[in-house]
From TrEMBL:
This is 16S rRNA (Guanine(966)-N(2))-methyltransferase RsmD. The keyword Methyltransferase applies. Keywords: Methyltransferase, Transferase. The keyword Methyltransferase applies. InterPro entries: DNA_methylase_N6_adenine_CS, RNA_MeTrfase_RsmD, SAM-dependent_MTases_sf. SUPFAM superfamilies: S-adenosyl-L-methionine-dependent methyltransferases (SSF53335).
Length: 179
């Protein structure tokens, strides 16, 4: 695992051994960011199921200003901290050590990019996107990127958002919602 492109491109990322997290492969990560960018001119990103932190780090590497990473697993939190240190841009990252649903109650400000890569067994994307919208946490031009198992069928519309792009990469499906 590595940062695919941008300021930190090529730098290695640590991942958690075992089945606690399911890191996005470099191929899927590169394809995902090519779908939505591939580069950004600032903005704020929310990674609600951070795992190793690789997606948020990729977003910062490609030009986002700041990232909020949410992770409940203690071992994964340690990996995220190590990966953030590797960037030497500590001020760009905030790690919330809690589950996604609790974090939704505490978040403030607006996000320009939301990354939802929940564990395959816990698909709560529809409810979480709706809650983010109801709590006014989403910028007008927000992109919501969902990575799921390829067999998961997300709805055409969630709240005020519709599917903009959707592609399958191996066992993963990437769905991008916009207003």
């Amino acid at each position: 695992m590595r940062v695919v492109a941008g300021e930190f491109g090529g730098r290695p990322l640590k991942t958690l051994a075992g089945r606690t997290t399911r890191p996005t492969t470099d191929k899927v990560k590169g394809a995902m960011f090519n779908m939505i960018g591939p580069y950004f001119e600032g903005g704020r990103v929310l990674d609600l199921f951070a795992g190793s932190g690789g997606l948020a780090i990729e977003a910062i590497s490609r030009g986002m200003d700041s990232a909020v990473l949410v992770e409940k697993d203690r071992k994964a939190q340690q990996i995220i901290e190590e990966n953030i240190k590797m960037t030497q841009a500590l001020a760009a990252f905030t790690l919330l050590r809690m589950d996604a649903n609790r974090a939704l109650q505490q978040l403030t400000g607006k996000f320009d990019l939301v990354l939802l890569d929940p564990p395959y067994a816990e698909e709560e994307i529809v409810r979480q996107v709706t809650e983010l919208e109801e709590r006014a946490l989403l910028a007008q031009e927000v992109m919501i990127v969902c990575e799921t198992d390829r067999a998961v069928d997300l709805p055409e519309e969630i709240s005020n958002f519709g599917i903009w792009k959707q592609k399958i990469y191996g066992i993963s499906k990437v769905t991008v919602y916009v207003r």
